[in-house]
Design brief:
JmjC_dom; five-stranded mixed beta sheet; RmlC-like_jellyroll; Cupin_8; 13 strands; Cupin-like domain-containing protein; eight-stranded antiparallel beta sheet
Length: 339
């Protein structure tokens, strides 16, 4: 049963004079209009898609092949599983970035081109010099910068652990966001077999099958949406689910990822995988006891949690630093190796 759902609320827009440093600390999504409108890459895109492709081709480093995701036009640009969910509806090819750009330019006037998508391509590796010509001051953050290039694509809702500032360079992008607590209504697919590294919603938000996925209607009530053009940006806080549609024949996005935690911290996904291994299949009363333990030592931990233990004897309950994290990591590896 496919049904048209009412339009969701708009993602709030930042005040035009708001300092970027303050916006990057947001814990809910924000659209930043015109943030990169002075970038040379954006000015080229405002002239034409071809001008944008030509600009990027000048900077391309073809010494390292990029990975292109390719699919027939019939997939509708949706990067997803095949019908069996044992594989995907696309294939990956290694190509020089300039070749991918030339191919995208060739298909600009073709009515039904194949989908071509270079995703999560490290900016400094594949387009050295882009950051020097298109600057953005993110203050003390040391982000990972990536570039995403393609034609008409639809990326299912997924989340990322880092915070994210996504800047549209060419074409339009439609962002549909869901708060983290809507995970149960998004029908998330496998954790360990994913189209692009992160688990994705199995619901096609453009045409939701509410007979198969009835709870998605509730997720949609909490959705936020915005359409961005060249020069616009969006702040996507950690763990917010986001689906991204690119409706134009050529589109480019540059994004910056960073975490609000020390570099030595493991990704929390490691804890989730360990919990699946050790906790999920316990009897209900044991899971409840472990939930209490996790609340005490992790989710509700404060200065009082270990205050009754002499400071020198607190071990892993002491505040972690790089050395303590290395020790704890070694202990975990030893425990797992015993199996």
């Amino acid at each position: 049963m496919h049904r048209t759902l009412p339009p969701p609320a708009a993602i709030p827009e930042a005040p035009p004079d708001a300092p970027l440093a303050a916006l990057l600390d947001a814990t809910s999504p924000l659209v930043v209009r015109g943030l990169t409108r002075t970038w040379p890459a954006v000015r080229a895109a405002m002239r034409s898609h071809l001008a944008a492709a030509t600009y990027l081709r000048r900077l391309a480093n073809d010494a390292v092949p990029a990975v292109a995701t390719v699919a027939p036009h019939e997939c509708g640009g949706r990067i997803f599983y095949d019908a069996s969910m044992q594989g995907f509806n696309f294939r990956r090819e290694e190509v020089p970035a300039s070749v991918a750009l030339n191919t995208l330019a060739k298909y600009l006037d073709v009515e039904a081109p194949p989908m071509i998508y270079l995703g999560a391509t490290t900016l400094d590796t594949y387009f050295p010099g882009f950051g020097l010509e298109n600057r953005l001051d993110l203050g003390p953050r040391d982000p990972l910068a990536s570039i995403w290039i393609g034609n008409r694509t639809r990326v299912p809702a997924h989340h990322d652990v880092p915070d994210n500032l996504a800047c549209v360079v060419a074409g339009r992008r439609r962002f549909t966001l869901f708060p983290p607590e809507q995970i149960g209504n998004l029908y998330i697919g496998p954790l360990d077999f994913t189209p692009a590294g992160q688990p994705v919603s199995l619901v096609d938000a453009a045409a939701p099958d509410l007979e198969r996925f009835p709870r998605f209607a509730e997720a949609w009530r909490h959705a936020l949406v915005a359409e961005l053009g060249p020069g616009d940006a969006i702040v996507i806080p950690s763990m917010w689910w986001h689906a991204i549609d690119a409706p134009d024949g050529f589109n480019v996005l540059v994004n910056y990822w960073w975490r609000r935690s020390p570099a030595w911290m493991e990704t929390p996904m490691s804890a989730l995988m360990a919990a699946l291994l050790t906790l999920r299949d316990l009897p209900a009363h044991e899971r409840a006891a472990w939930r209490t333990l996790f609340d005490h030592y992790v989710f509700e931990a404060d200065a009082a949690t270990a205050a009754h233990i002499p400071e020198a004897a607190r071990g892993v309950l002491a505040p972690l630093d790089a050395s303590g994290a290395a020790h704890l990591r070694q202990r975990l590896m030893e425990r797992l190796a015993k199996r």
